[in-house]
Automatic annotation (TrEMBL):
Name of the coding gene: P3h3
Organism of derivation: Psophia crepitans
InterPro entries assigned to the protein according to its UniProt record, in alphabetical order: Leprecan_dom, Oxoglu/Fe-dep_dioxygenase_dom, P3H, Pro_4_hyd_alph, Pro_4_hyd_alph_FE2OG_OXY, TPR-like_helical_dom_sf
Similarity section: Belongs to the leprecan family.
Keywords: Coiled coil, Dioxygenase, Endoplasmic reticulum, Glycoprotein, Iron, Metal-binding, Oxidoreductase, Repeat, Signal, TPR repeat, Vitamin C
GO biological process, one term: collagen metabolic process
UniProt-recorded name of the protein: procollagen-proline 3-dioxygenase
Requisite cofactors: L-ascorbate; Fe cation
Enzyme class (EC, first level): oxidoreductase
Length: 575
C-alpha cells in the first residue's frame, strides 16, 4: 500500500519481540537502506510507558548517569503502579466458565460468591506478572517493583540525596525485611541523617504491600478450606502467611528443587582431568547455568596452525569442501570437513596425513576431557565430528543484524513461547553432550552465547581462541547460538557425544580403519628399507605432540568392514 512508515513500525515491533527471526532481520535491513524511511519510523507499537522509562533508566544507571537514571526510574515506578491499577480494574467481571460450573456443580449462593471473589483476587495478584513482562516477551522480570527501589536507593545515594535513598531502602525492606545488605545501608543512612530523623517507607509502597498481603491471606485461606490452587507470583511472600498444611507441600516442592540441584551438582562433580596443563577457565557457576565449562590450552598454537592448514588444503582440493552459503545466514560462507573426508583426502594425497591424524587426535582428546569432567565412569561415544569454518562475506556486512547460528538446543526442538524444548525428531534426541574446540581468534564476532529458554536473555558468552574448548550438556538447560562473524574466518571443531553405542559415529570407525591401513602399509615400507629402525614408524607418521598429554587411541572394532558407505552418512551442519 506504499505506507512505508506503518510497514517499518510493524516490522520493528515484531522484530523487538522476535530478534531471532531471520526473515524479519532481512526486512529490517531492507527498510534501513530505503531512502524514504526515517529513523523515527522504527518505533515499537506495543511499547508501554513504564517499560520505556524503565529501560531508559537502567541504561542511564549502567552508564553511571545517576541524575538521569533517577528521573526515568521514578517515572517508571509511577507508571508501573498506574498500570497495575488498570490491570486490577480489568479483573472485575463475570465468573469465568460460569455456565459450565452451573450445569455441573450448581453451587449455592455463598459458594458462588466465594468462587467469584477468589477468582478476582487471583487475577489481581497475577497483574504484577503482566506489568513485569515486556511487550512481546513471555517471561516476567522477577521482583519488578522491588528492583526499582533497589536501583533508586543506590542512584539517590550517588547523587548525594541520602534522605530519598533511605526512603527507597525502607520501602525495599517492606518486601525483604531481613535483607542484610539493605539493612546495612539503612544503618548507614540513619547515621548520616541523624538518629532523630524519621525514615519511613513510601506511602504508595506501603499501600501496595499491605493490600497484596491481605489478598494473599484471603486466597490461601480459600485454597486451604475450599480447595483449588494458587500460583503466588511474588518471591517475597512471607512464609508465615502460608497455612501450615500448605507449607508442607511448599516444603516438599522446595526440597525437590534442592534435590534436583544436588543431582546436578553430583553430575557436575569433576573427575581428574586426564591431561596435564589444561586449565578450567570458567565453570557452570561462572557461566550462570548448569553443566557448562570452558577449558584452555587443549591445543598448542602449532597444533592450531596445523589444523588450519588442513582446512586450507582441503579447500584447495575442492571436492567435498567447497565454500558455500551458510545454511543459517546469507552473510557468511560455510566449509565443513568430517574425519572420514579428511582421511580420504590424505589417502589421495590432497592433504598431509599428519594433519588428518591430528584432527582425530584432537577430537579424541576433547572426548576424554569432557568424559572425565562430566561423566566419570560412564563412557561417551562420538555422535558427530565436524571441522567447520565460517567466513564473513565482506560486501554483505553493512547493516547486518542476524546471527551466524540462531539460538537452539542440540537434542530437542526449542519452543521459546511455550518455555519448552521437545525431545523428539527431527531433533538429535540421542545427543548428550556438545563441545566446540576453537582454532583461531583472528576474526570479528563469532562468539558462542548461552540464553534462557526465551532465546533472548543472554546468560553467558564464550570468546573463541586457539585451544579453547567449551563443553556443555545438549539439552534444554543450555540454549545457545553464535554471534555473527562480521570479518575474517572462524574455524573450530564441532563435537557431539552420546551415551548410546547404537548412535556412535560410524564415519569415525571408517576413518580409523583408513589410518590403521596407512600405518600397516608404512610399517611394511619401512621394513623393506635397509637399516630401517625397529619401531616401524616413519618420522612423517609420528604422533604430533599434544600439549604434554598422555596419548590416547581408539582400537579398531571388529565388524567395521560393514560400515555404511559415507554417502549414506551425511549429517546436517550445525555450527
Amino acid at each position: 500500500l506504499k505506507k512505508l512508515d506503518q510497514a517499518v513500525s510493524a516490522a520493528h515491533t515484531f522484530f523487538v519481540a522476535n530478534p531471532q527471526h531471520l526473515q524479519m532481520r532481512e526486512d529490517i535491513e531492507k527498510y534501513r537502506r530505503m531512502s524514504g524511511v526515517k529513523s523515527d519510523n522504527f518505533r515499537d507499537l506495543e511499547a508501554t510507558p513504564h517499560w520505556e522509562a524503565y529501560e531508559a533508566g537502567v541504561q542511564h544507571y549502567d552508564a553511571d548517569e545517576y541524575p538521569q537514571a533517577v528521573a526515568r526510574l521514578e517515572e517508571s515506578l509511577t507508571e508501573t503502579l498506574s498500570a497495575l491499577e488498570e490491570c486490577r480494574a480489568l479483573c472485575e467481571g463475570p465468573l469465568e466458565d460460569e455456565e459450565e460450573e452451573e450445569e455441573e456443580m450448581q453451587p449455592g449462593l455463598y459458594e458462588a460468591i466465594a468462587a467469584h471473589y477468589i477468582q478476582v483476587l487471583k487475577c489481581r495478584q497475577q497483574c504484577v506478572l503482566e506489568i513485569a513482562t515486556k511487550p512481546g516477551r513471555i517471561s516476567a522480570t522477577e521482583d519488578f517493583i522491588p528492583s526499582h527501589l533497589d536501583l533508586l536507593q543506590f542512584a539517590y545515594d550517588q547523587v548525594g540525596n541520602q534522605a530519598l535513598a533511605a526512603e527507597c531502602a525502607a520501602s525495599y525492606l517492606l518486601f525483604y525485611p531481613t535483607d542484610e545488605p539493605m539493612l546495612e545501608k539503612m544503618k548507614q543512612y540513619r547515621t548520616e541523617l541523624g538518629e532523630d530523623t524519621a525514615v519511613t517507607a513510601r506511602e504508595s509502597i506501603q499501600h501496595y504491600v499491605q493490600r497484596s498481603l491481605m489478598e494473599k491471606k484471603l486466597i490461601y485461606y480459600a485454597v486451604e478450606h475450599l480447595g483449588g490452587t494458587f500460583n503466588d507470583p511474588d518471591l517475597w511472600t512471607p512464609d508465615e502467611l502460608i497455612p501450615d498444611n500448605l507449607k508442607e507441600k511448599h516444603r516438599e516442592d522446595q526440597e525437590k528443587q534442592k534435590q534436583e540441584a544436588r543431582d546436578v551438582e553430583e553430575i557436575e562433580k569433576r573427575g581428574p582431568l586426564p591431561f596435564d596443563g589444561i586449565a578450567v577457565t570458567m565453570d557452570s557457576r561462572q557461566m550462570n547455568g548448569t553443566q557448562r565449562v570452558v577449558f584452555d590450552r587443549v591445543l598448542t598454537e602449532s597444533e592450531c596452525k596445523d589444523l588450519l592448514r588442513l582446512t586450507k588444503a582441503a579447500g584447495e582440493a575442492g571436492d567435498g569442501y567447497r565454500a558455500r552459503r551458510s545454511p543459517h545466514t546469507p552473510h557468511e560462507r560455510f566449509e565443513g570437513l568430517t574425519v572420514l573426508k579428511a582421511m580420504q583426502l590424505a589417502q589421495s594425497g590432497d592433504v598431509d596425513w599428519r594433519d588428518a591424524k591430528l584432527l582425530l587426535q584432537a577430537s579424541e582428546k576433547s572426548l576424554k576431557i569432557i568424559e572425565s569432567y562430566f561423566t566419570p565412569g560412564k563412557k561417551l561415544h562420538f555422535s558427530f565430528t565436524h571441522l567447520v569454518c565460517r567466513t564473513a562475506i565482506d560486501e554483505e556486512q553493512e547493516g547486518r543484524m542476524d546471527l551466524s547460528h540462531p539460538v537452539h538446543a542440540d537434542n530437542c526442538l526449542l519452543d521459546p513461547e511455550g518455555q519448552e524444548c521437545w525431545r523428539e525428531p527431527p531433533a538429535y534426541v540421542y545427543r548428550d553432550y556438545s563441545g566446540i574446540l576453537y582454532l583461531n581468534d583472528d576474526f570479528q564476532g563469532g562468539g558462542l552465547f548461552f540464553t534462557e529458554m526465551d532465546t533472548v536473555t543472554v546468560t553467558a558468552e564464550v570468546h573463541p581462541k586457539c585451544g579453547r574448548l567449551v563443553a556443555f550438556s545438549s539439552g534444554k538447560e543450555n540454549p545457545h547460538g553464535v554471534w555473527a562473524v562480521s570479518r575474517g574466518r572462524r574455524c573450530a571443531i564441532a563435537l557431539w557425544y552420546t551415551h548410546s553405542r547404537e548412535h556412535a559415529e560410524q564415519e569415525r570407525v571408517k576413518a580409523e580403519e583408513l589410518m590403521k591401513q596407512r600405518a600397516v602399509k608404512q610399517d611394511r615400507s619401512d621394513g623393506e628399507r635397509p637399516g630401517a629402525g625397529h619401531s616401524g614408524r616413519s618420522s612423517s607418521d609420528s604422533p604430533v605432540p599434544n600439549s604434554g598429554a598422555r596419548p590416547t587411541s581408539r582400537r579398531h572394532q571388529p565388524g567395521s568392514d560393514r560400515t555404511q558407505h559415507p554417502k549414506e552418512l551425511r549429517a546436517r551442519d550445525e555450527f
